[in-house]
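Customer escalation, tier 2.

The customer says the design service returned an amino acid string that "doesn't look like it belongs to this structure." They asked us to rerun it and document both sides in this ticket. The original C-alpha coordinates are below, unchanged.
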Protein backbone atom coordinates (compact mmCIF):
# COMPACT_ATOMS: atom_id res chain seq x y z
CA UNK A 1 0.00 0.00 0.00
CA UNK A 2 2.88 2.35 0.80
CA UNK A 3 4.42 1.80 -2.65
CA UNK A 4 1.04 2.37 -4.30
CA UNK A 5 0.71 5.63 -2.39
CA UNK A 6 4.16 6.71 -3.57
CA UNK A 7 3.27 5.84 -7.15
CA UNK A 8 -0.06 7.69 -7.10
CA UNK A 9 1.44 10.74 -5.39
CA UNK A 10 4.39 10.98 -7.78
CA UNK A 11 2.15 10.53 -10.82
CA UNK A 12 -0.18 13.30 -9.61
CA UNK A 13 2.78 15.61 -8.98
CA UNK A 14 4.20 14.95 -12.46
CA UNK A 15 0.85 15.64 -14.14
CA UNK A 16 0.21 18.83 -12.15
CA UNK A 17 3.75 20.17 -12.61
CA UNK A 18 3.52 19.70 -16.35
CA UNK A 19 0.21 21.58 -16.46
CA UNK A 20 1.68 24.37 -14.32
CA UNK A 21 4.77 24.65 -16.50
CA UNK A 22 3.17 24.44 -19.93
CA UNK A 23 1.31 27.77 -19.58
CA UNK A 24 4.33 29.97 -18.83
CA UNK A 25 6.28 27.91 -21.35
CA UNK A 26 3.69 28.80 -23.99
CA UNK A 27 3.07 32.45 -23.13
CA UNK A 28 6.43 33.77 -21.88
CA UNK A 29 8.10 33.54 -25.32
CA UNK A 30 5.16 35.49 -26.76
CA UNK A 31 5.63 38.24 -24.17
CA UNK A 32 9.38 38.41 -24.64
CA UNK A 33 9.63 38.18 -28.44
CA UNK A 34 7.68 40.20 -30.99
CA UNK A 35 8.95 37.90 -33.74
CA UNK A 36 7.45 34.84 -32.03
CA UNK A 37 4.14 36.68 -31.50
CA UNK A 38 3.97 37.57 -35.18
CA UNK A 39 4.86 34.05 -36.27
CA UNK A 40 2.68 32.05 -33.86
CA UNK A 41 -0.05 34.44 -32.75
CA UNK A 42 -1.73 34.05 -29.37
CA UNK A 43 -2.26 30.48 -28.16
CA UNK A 44 -5.71 29.44 -27.02
CA UNK A 45 -5.64 28.44 -23.32
CA UNK A 46 -7.64 25.27 -24.03
CA UNK A 47 -5.04 24.15 -26.58
CA UNK A 48 -2.21 24.89 -24.16
CA UNK A 49 -4.02 22.81 -21.54
CA UNK A 50 -4.32 19.91 -23.99
CA UNK A 51 -0.58 20.10 -24.72
CA UNK A 52 0.06 19.79 -21.00
CA UNK A 53 -2.47 16.99 -20.51
CA UNK A 54 -1.04 15.05 -23.45
CA UNK A 55 2.27 14.68 -21.62
CA UNK A 56 2.53 10.88 -21.54
CA UNK A 57 5.86 9.59 -20.25
CA UNK A 58 7.38 6.54 -21.88
CA UNK A 59 10.65 5.08 -23.05
CA UNK A 60 12.86 8.03 -22.05
CA UNK A 61 11.60 7.92 -18.46
CA UNK A 62 12.23 4.19 -18.17
CA UNK A 63 15.59 4.41 -19.94
CA UNK A 64 16.75 7.05 -17.46
CA UNK A 65 15.72 4.86 -14.53
CA UNK A 66 17.35 1.73 -15.99
CA UNK A 67 20.57 3.63 -16.67
CA UNK A 68 21.25 3.87 -12.93
CA UNK A 69 24.19 1.63 -11.95
CA UNK A 70 23.64 -1.45 -9.83
CA UNK A 71 26.40 -0.45 -7.41
CA UNK A 72 28.16 2.69 -6.28
CA UNK A 73 31.89 3.35 -6.62
CA UNK A 74 32.45 1.64 -3.27
CA UNK A 75 30.71 -1.54 -4.48
CA UNK A 76 27.61 -1.06 -2.34
CA UNK A 77 24.19 -1.48 -3.96
CA UNK A 78 22.90 1.74 -5.52
CA UNK A 79 20.41 3.14 -2.97
CA UNK A 80 16.79 3.04 -4.00
CA UNK A 81 17.44 1.75 -7.52
CA UNK A 82 14.53 -0.71 -7.51
CA UNK A 83 12.20 1.91 -6.04
CA UNK A 84 13.17 4.43 -8.71
CA UNK A 85 12.52 1.91 -11.47
CA UNK A 86 9.18 0.99 -9.90
CA UNK A 87 8.13 4.63 -9.62
CA UNK A 88 9.22 5.37 -13.18
CA UNK A 89 7.16 2.45 -14.47
CA UNK A 90 4.23 3.59 -12.32
CA UNK A 91 4.33 7.12 -13.77
CA UNK A 92 4.34 5.67 -17.29
CA UNK A 93 1.35 3.43 -16.58
CA UNK A 94 -0.60 6.16 -14.76
CA UNK A 95 -0.12 8.77 -17.47
CA UNK A 96 -1.06 6.22 -20.10
CA UNK A 97 -4.24 5.32 -18.24
CA UNK A 98 -5.27 8.73 -16.88
CA UNK A 99 -4.01 11.16 -19.51
CA UNK A 100 -4.20 8.81 -22.47
CA UNK A 101 -7.75 7.58 -21.85
CA UNK A 102 -9.18 10.99 -20.90
CA UNK A 103 -7.48 13.05 -23.61
CA UNK A 104 -10.15 12.26 -26.26
CA UNK A 105 -12.84 13.28 -23.75
CA UNK A 106 -11.17 16.65 -23.18
CA UNK A 107 -10.76 17.18 -26.93
CA UNK A 108 -14.43 16.49 -27.61
CA UNK A 109 -15.60 18.40 -24.54
CA UNK A 110 -13.62 21.49 -25.50
CA UNK A 111 -14.78 21.32 -29.10
CA UNK A 112 -11.22 21.27 -30.45
CA UNK A 113 -10.90 20.66 -34.16
CA UNK A 114 -7.94 20.41 -36.48
CA UNK A 115 -6.84 23.73 -37.99
CA UNK A 116 -6.36 22.21 -41.46
CA UNK A 117 -2.80 23.54 -41.74
CA UNK A 118 -1.27 20.09 -42.20
CA UNK A 119 -3.79 19.21 -44.93
CA UNK A 120 -3.16 22.49 -46.77
CA UNK A 121 0.58 22.05 -46.53
CA UNK A 122 0.31 18.49 -47.82
CA UNK A 123 -1.79 19.59 -50.80
CA UNK A 124 0.65 22.39 -51.61
CA UNK A 125 3.58 19.99 -51.32
CA UNK A 126 1.98 17.39 -53.59
CA UNK A 127 1.25 20.08 -56.18
CA UNK A 128 4.82 21.38 -56.03
CA UNK A 129 6.23 17.86 -56.34
CA UNK A 130 4.12 17.12 -59.40
CA UNK A 131 5.18 20.39 -61.05
CA UNK A 132 8.84 19.65 -60.30
CA UNK A 133 8.47 16.19 -61.85
CA UNK A 134 6.92 17.64 -65.03
CA UNK A 135 9.76 20.17 -65.41
CA UNK A 136 12.38 17.47 -64.85
CA UNK A 137 10.93 15.12 -67.47
CA UNK A 138 10.52 17.95 -69.99
CA UNK A 139 14.18 18.84 -69.58
CA UNK A 140 15.04 15.27 -70.48
CA UNK A 141 12.89 15.20 -73.63
CA UNK A 142 15.51 16.76 -75.97
CA UNK A 143 18.03 14.07 -74.97
CA UNK A 144 15.73 11.18 -75.92
CA UNK A 145 16.13 9.64 -79.37
CA UNK A 146 14.03 6.48 -79.38
CA UNK A 147 10.34 6.73 -80.16
CA UNK A 148 9.28 4.54 -77.25
CA UNK A 149 11.32 6.64 -74.80
CA UNK A 150 9.70 9.84 -76.05
CA UNK A 151 6.24 8.24 -75.86
CA UNK A 152 6.85 7.13 -72.30
CA UNK A 153 8.15 10.57 -71.29
CA UNK A 154 5.05 12.25 -72.79
CA UNK A 155 2.78 9.77 -71.01
CA UNK A 156 4.57 10.45 -67.74
CA UNK A 157 4.19 14.20 -68.23
CA UNK A 158 0.50 13.74 -68.93
CA UNK A 159 0.10 11.64 -65.78
CA UNK A 160 1.67 14.34 -63.62
CA UNK A 161 -0.27 17.11 -65.36
CA UNK A 162 -3.51 15.25 -64.65
CA UNK A 163 -2.46 15.09 -61.01
CA UNK A 164 -1.79 18.85 -61.03
CA UNK A 165 -5.19 19.55 -62.60
CA UNK A 166 -6.88 17.29 -60.04
CA UNK A 167 -5.18 18.98 -57.10
CA UNK A 168 -6.00 22.43 -58.49
CA UNK A 169 -9.63 21.46 -59.13
CA UNK A 170 -9.97 20.09 -55.59
CA UNK A 171 -8.50 23.27 -54.14
CA UNK A 172 -10.87 25.43 -56.19
CA UNK A 173 -13.83 23.32 -55.15
CA UNK A 174 -12.85 23.67 -51.50
CA UNK A 175 -12.60 27.44 -51.90
CA UNK A 176 -16.06 27.51 -53.47
CA UNK A 177 -17.51 25.43 -50.64
CA UNK A 178 -15.90 27.69 -48.04
CA UNK A 179 -17.30 30.77 -49.76
CA UNK A 180 -20.75 29.14 -49.91
CA UNK A 181 -20.65 28.29 -46.19
CA UNK A 182 -19.65 31.85 -45.33
CA UNK A 183 -22.49 33.23 -47.46
CA UNK A 184 -24.99 30.85 -45.87
CA UNK A 185 -23.86 31.80 -42.37
CA UNK A 186 -24.03 35.51 -43.21
CA UNK A 187 -27.57 35.18 -44.57
CA UNK A 188 -28.71 33.15 -41.58
CA UNK A 189 -27.18 35.66 -39.17
CA UNK A 190 -29.02 38.43 -41.04
CA UNK A 191 -32.27 36.49 -40.70
CA UNK A 192 -31.71 35.90 -36.97
CA UNK A 193 -31.00 39.60 -36.44
CA UNK A 194 -34.26 40.44 -38.20
CA UNK A 195 -36.08 37.97 -35.94
CA UNK A 196 -34.52 39.53 -32.85
CA UNK A 197 -35.39 43.08 -33.95
CA UNK A 198 -38.97 42.10 -34.72
CA UNK A 199 -39.29 40.28 -31.40
CA UNK A 200 -38.19 43.37 -29.49
CA UNK A 201 -40.59 45.47 -31.53
CA UNK A 202 -43.46 43.14 -30.62
CA UNK A 203 -42.55 43.42 -26.94
CA UNK A 204 -42.21 47.20 -27.09
CA UNK A 205 -45.66 47.54 -28.66
CA UNK A 206 -47.18 45.20 -26.03
CA UNK A 207 -48.09 42.53 -28.55
CA UNK A 208 -46.17 40.00 -26.41
CA UNK A 209 -45.06 40.09 -22.77
CA UNK A 210 -41.57 39.64 -21.30
CA UNK A 211 -42.07 35.93 -20.63
CA UNK A 212 -42.82 35.21 -24.28
CA UNK A 213 -39.87 37.43 -25.21
CA UNK A 214 -37.47 35.39 -23.05
CA UNK A 215 -38.68 32.05 -24.44
CA UNK A 216 -38.31 33.05 -28.08
CA UNK A 217 -35.14 35.01 -27.46
CA UNK A 218 -33.57 31.90 -25.93
CA UNK A 219 -34.29 29.98 -29.15
CA UNK A 220 -32.70 32.74 -31.23
CA UNK A 221 -29.65 32.86 -28.95
CA UNK A 222 -29.22 29.09 -29.26
CA UNK A 223 -29.43 29.21 -33.07
CA UNK A 224 -26.92 32.06 -33.14
CA UNK A 225 -24.49 30.26 -30.85
CA UNK A 226 -24.59 27.21 -33.14
CA UNK A 227 -23.71 29.41 -36.11
CA UNK A 228 -20.83 31.05 -34.25
CA UNK A 229 -19.48 27.64 -33.19
CA UNK A 230 -19.70 26.32 -36.75
CA UNK A 231 -17.91 29.40 -38.07
CA UNK A 232 -15.14 28.95 -35.49
CA UNK A 233 -14.66 25.28 -36.44
CA UNK A 234 -14.36 26.08 -40.15
CA UNK A 235 -12.04 28.98 -39.45
CA UNK A 236 -9.63 26.56 -37.78
Amino acid sequence: MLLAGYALSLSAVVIVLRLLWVFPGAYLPLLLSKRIREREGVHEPRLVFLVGWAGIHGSVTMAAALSLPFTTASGAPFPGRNLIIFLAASVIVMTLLVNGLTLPLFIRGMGVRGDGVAEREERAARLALAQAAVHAVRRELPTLTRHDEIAYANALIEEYENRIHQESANAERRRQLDALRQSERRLRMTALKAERDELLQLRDTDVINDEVLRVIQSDIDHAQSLLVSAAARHAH
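Tier 2 assessment: The sequence is consistent with the input. The first helix runs from residue 2 to 32. The mean pLDDT is 82. Sent an explanation to the customer and offered a walkthrough call.
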